[in-house]
Backbone:
């Protein structure tokens, strides 16, 4: 909304300029977006919140300035002298449904001269950002910018049947609007029509056929108030707004139609009564009355506000007060369509009284029970652990392209946006992994050699029409685990390292992750695992498929995991103290050859199965392949630690147990002892 | 016979490892090596001498056992020697402690996450609980229950992403629907914050992002008033931005609060003293929060009697903090995840 400061001063004689004026407006709630100089005039571009349609005019702003400063008076244009009586018969205004059009006032003015407006008027309109058209149309715009009421002016001779009908459009009716576009109508549109055809889209735009032209001699001026919802729906269907629809859909002052017509007549230089006048106001809207306890403003703001102060502020804003002892009945002026509750009134009082009077107090209210947020703590500890070992957190959008969703899983049903910003952002992501690969590629292009990332966010899916939104933790590594320097050799990331990180995360939560062979579209067949805890799956990991990497132009393998956070959190338990075994340990080593067809996992399972009661722990200490051993074998070295909970084990005792255990192991897995 | 040998080897191995453990100097090392590997009197030699006692059938197995043990002793000793004499073997021990440190990897939290965490921590200290809501939200919770009915002009101000085939759902345009979810499920008094992602259909530019982060706050109890809101936000802003920060409340409009206030803080860089200040551009104020008293209709919509209870709510954008407090010039940079930016924070 553009406010011409000089014009504004006609209606409220204040003497502030520049920053002081902006400050004053801000204290009322009017934010100045920009100060412009238009042809030597100072114009403020003001942001009007949707609750205050009354501010969409110079009157509205002037009224507020006057309310804020008790020494300034709001002085609207004097229009009371304009006579409005009907001289002419044989014309009529009909409203088919009072609910659509709350009030419709109209006048006929004969023998006008269409031409250019005065230069002063043209200059004023330009400062409002409007284009001068001709003296008649310009007047309707000037009235709207002055008092807020949109007018529409018809060429009377284009009206047929000597009548105006406010009615819903019928199917198959059409109208060509002033801007030349044709609109096919239906019952969603409210029309201004004559006896035969549509003349204008009510509250939005006039028709081309009944508009003012150089040849126009007689005019019909419409000043009406429509149901905001009806205008809003129609404007929504059309897909555009006009200055008029913008105002009507926010709610216009039902009492403004007549003063606006008078203003227009005054501007037309029309001193004598018009030829025809009619005001159709079938169901006068009741005045909103809000009871307000006199101490309520103080209670809701927490500061002492005298009853007289509250009353004075409300009165300056145009409210009428009826004193009922401990409370007022507050009569709301018709232009304040935003006021309906006592809280609304308190906002008015504190707004004008000044927000700077608010005190700072801490509420004593407390949650009855302070709960520790275990979930947040757990997630935070995982994040800390990852950051501590050199992983970087990333945050991506929740939407991505259909291709990116398909790279992770072409079969799953994805959730798509109805109105995306573009195809690249049209799907809700089914996994966080594509995002990590994209981020990896961006950083790899900057020649970064070690790229270790993680993200916590939601992934979305559909099954049976139900939407799933699940929190995930995704982790990826690419490039070098360790760069070569004078003391360290170069080490590339591999799956073993990545798995160690995952195991560490599990241990952080005191959970044992098991890695079960799995198949998934996003991962290489030979390196894809389900992460399980006691047989319950909580994630996937492995080496990303070459197609996946190629899509992001990554030339080295990416190892990645995606963990279902709620599934993981469900496994986290509070620990209870357990006494450890206090007797010494005995270690026995064992080196052997094993067929390559047997995996370590088989070996581990076999050890677990045969495990002697006193075997506390076992570790793989070396893995070796080379020319000294058969090509189909691998050499393993393992360390076994024995300990009893109730006695010190003797060397002989352990030897006996160890040898029996090894004998069985050798037999079952056909190991060759070295 | 063979088992006896193996047992003996185990025993020798055990004492060998013990000796290695206790080894102090290179001189002792030579003696140790001599003791085990000397051709004449070495432990291994004496074991090999015993081979002839074995029956022919057992000989190869016994020989292998001894040889494996010999190889074990040799490699272990080689490793120990390297350690004792320096990695390049032989020459005198050389130390240059001015050699550069190896670069151990350092990870970082995303700036947005670390700001979010700081804000959460402050409110947790004030006794608030964290309540998280879904990103795909019911239109009813995102708008209607928050006093933004269908066809309300305020819906225009929040360009909304809708979901294909689910007319009742949308991507939440703010974190405020969590207020609704919490109020429907709990009885006052309560105080919560709800951090998270929100979405608006804005093309990405320096100050807009279709995906952004907010922290929403809500407190409901008997007798809560506007000055409580100011006190709470002042406590937060002074902890977060600096102890001398001044708050300015301005009238504002949010459909779900009444009265509403936009909250500015005094510029923490120049305190309004410099017309060329890069943060406040000379105005002296920074717009950082929207807030207000919970609208009575919102309370009613959530089953809370507005005549008995009142409350306040506030919301702030995390990206805005990144720009204002940390000087990030362009929002898009925060979503590129370039490690050159991420490495600077968190």
Residues:
């Amino acid at each position: 909304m553009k406010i011409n400061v000089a014009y504004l001063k006609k209606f409220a004689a204040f003497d502030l300029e520049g920053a002081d004026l902006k400050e004053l407006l801000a204290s009322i709630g009017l934010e100045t977006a920009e100060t412009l100089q238009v042809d030597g005039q100072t114009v403020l571009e003001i942001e009007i919140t949707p609750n205050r349609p009354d501010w969409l005019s110079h009157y509205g702003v002037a009224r507020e300035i006057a309310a804020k400063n008790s020494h300034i008076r709001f002085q609207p244009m004097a229009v009371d002298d304009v006579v409005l009586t009907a001289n002419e018969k044989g014309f009529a205004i009909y409203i088919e449904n009072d609910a659509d059009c709350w009030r419709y006032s109209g006048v006929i003015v004969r023998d006008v001269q269409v031409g250019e407006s005065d230069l002063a008027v043209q200059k004023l309109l330009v400062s409002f950002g409007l284009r001068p058209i001709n003296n008649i149309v310009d007047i309707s715009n000037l009235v709207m910018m002055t008092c807020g009421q949109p007018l529409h002016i018809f060429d009377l001779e284009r009206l047929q049947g000597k009548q105006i009908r406010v009615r819903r459009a019928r199917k198959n009716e059409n109208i060509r609007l002033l801007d030349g576009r044709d609109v096919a109508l239906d019952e969603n549109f409210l029309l201004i029509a004559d006896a035969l055809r549509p003349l204008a889209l009510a509250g939005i735009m006039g028709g081309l056929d009944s508009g003012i032209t150089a040849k126009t001699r007689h005019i019909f001026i419409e000043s009406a108030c429509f149901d905001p919802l009806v205008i809003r729906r129609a404007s929504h269907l059309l897909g555009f707004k006009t200055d008029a629809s913008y105002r009507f859909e926010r709610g216009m002052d039902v009492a403004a139609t007549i003063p606006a017509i008078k203003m227009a007549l005054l501007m037309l230089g029309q001193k004598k009564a018009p030829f025809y006048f009619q005001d159709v106001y079938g169901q006068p809207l009741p005045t909103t009355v809000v009871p307000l306890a006199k101490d309520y403003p103080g209670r809701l703001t927490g500061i002492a506000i005298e009853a007289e102060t509250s009353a004075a502020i409300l009165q300056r804003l145009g409210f009428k007060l009826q004193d009922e002892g401990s409370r007022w009945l507050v009569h709301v002026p018709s232009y304040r369509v935003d006021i309906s509750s006592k809280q609304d009134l308190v906002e008015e009082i504190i707004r004008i009284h000044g927000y700077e009077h608010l005190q700072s107090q801490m509420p004593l209210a407390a949650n009855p029970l302070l709960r520790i947020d275990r979930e947040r703590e757990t997630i935070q500890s995982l994040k800390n652990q990852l950051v501590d070992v050199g992983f970087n957190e990333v945050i991506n959008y929740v939407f991505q392209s259909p291709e990116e969703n398909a790279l992770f899983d072409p079969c799953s049903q994805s959730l798509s946006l109805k109105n995306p910003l573009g195809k690249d952002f049209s799907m809700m992501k089914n996994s966080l992994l594509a995002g990590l690969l994209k981020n990896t590629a961006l950083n790899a292009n900057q020649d970064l050699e070690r790229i270790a990332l993680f993200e916590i966010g939601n992934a979305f899916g559909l099954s049976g029409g139900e939407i799933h939104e699940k929190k995930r933790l995704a982790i990826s590594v690419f490039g070098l685990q360790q760069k070569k320097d004078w003391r360290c050799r170069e080490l590339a990331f591999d799956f073993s390292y990545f798995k160690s990180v995952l195991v560490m995360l599990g241990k952080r939560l005191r959970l044992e992750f098991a890695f079960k062979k799995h198949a998934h579209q996003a991962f290489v067949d030979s390196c894809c695992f389900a992460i399980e805890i006691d047989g319950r799956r909580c994630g996937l990991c492995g080496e990303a498929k070459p197609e996946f990497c190629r899509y992001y132009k990554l030339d080295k393998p990416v190892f990645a995991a995606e963990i279902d956070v709620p599934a993981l959190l469900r496994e986290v338990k509070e620990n209870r103290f357990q006494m450890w075994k206090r007797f010494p340990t005995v270690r026995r080593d064992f080196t052997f050859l094993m067929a390559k067809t047997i995996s370590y996992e088989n070996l581990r399972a076999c050890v677990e199965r045969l495990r002697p009661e006193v075997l506390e722990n076992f570790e793989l200490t070396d893995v070796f392949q080379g020319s000294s051993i058969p090509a189909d074998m691998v050499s393993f070295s393992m360390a076994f630690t024995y300990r009893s909970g109730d006695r010190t084990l003797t060397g002989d005792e352990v030897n006996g147990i160890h040898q029996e255990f090894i004998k069985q192991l050798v037999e079952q897995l056909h190991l060759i002892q070295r | 016979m063979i088992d006896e040998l193996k047992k003996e080897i185990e025993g020798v191995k055990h004492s060998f490892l013990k000796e290695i453990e206790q080894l102090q100097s290179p001189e002792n090392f030579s003696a140790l090596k001599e003791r085990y590997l000397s051709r004449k009197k070495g432990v291994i030699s004496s074991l090999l001498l015993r081979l002839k006692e074995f029956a022919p059938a057992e000989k190869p197995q016994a020989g292998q056992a001894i040889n494996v043990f010999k190889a074990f002793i040799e490699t272990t000793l080689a490793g120990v020697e390297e350690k004792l004499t320096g990695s390049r073997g032989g020459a005198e021990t050389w130390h240059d402690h001015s050699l550069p440190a190896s670069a151990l990897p350092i990870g970082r939290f995303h700036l947005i996450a670390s700001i979010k965490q700081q804000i959460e921590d402050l409110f947790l200290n004030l006794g608030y609980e964290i309540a998280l809501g879904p990103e795909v939200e019911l239109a009813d919770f995102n708008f209607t229950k928050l006093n933004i009915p269908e066809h309300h002009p305020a819906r225009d101000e929040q360009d909304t992403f809708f979901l294909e085939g689910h007319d009742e759902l949308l991507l939440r345009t703010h974190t405020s629907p969590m207020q609704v979810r919490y109020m429907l499920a709990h009885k006052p008094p309560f105080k919560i914050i709800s951090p998270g992602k929100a979405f608006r259909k804005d093309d990405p530019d320096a100050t807009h992002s279709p995906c952004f982060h907010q922290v929403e706050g809500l407190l409901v109890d008997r007798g809560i008033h506007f000055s409580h809101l100011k006190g709470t936000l002042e406590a937060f802003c002074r902890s977060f931005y600096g102890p001398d920060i001044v708050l300015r409340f301005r009238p504002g409009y949010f459909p779900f609060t009444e009265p509403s206030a936009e909250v500015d803080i005094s510029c923490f860089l120049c305190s309004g003293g410099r017309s060329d200040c890069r943060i406040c551009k000379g105005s002296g104020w920074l717009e950082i929060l929207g807030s207000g008293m919970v609208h009575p209709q919102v309370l009613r919509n959530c089953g809370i009697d507005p005549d008995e209870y009142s409350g306040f709510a506030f919301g702030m954008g995390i990206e805005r903090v990144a720009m204002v407090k940390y000087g990030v010039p362009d929002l898009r940079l925060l979503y590129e995840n370039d490690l050159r930016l991420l490495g600077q924070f968190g």
Notes: Strands of chain B lie at 129-130, 136-138, 162-163, 166-171, 190-199, 211-221, 247-251, 257-266, 285-294, 310-317. Chain B touches chain A through 89 residues (CB under 8 Å). The CA atoms of residues 66 and 304 of chain B lie 85 Å apart.
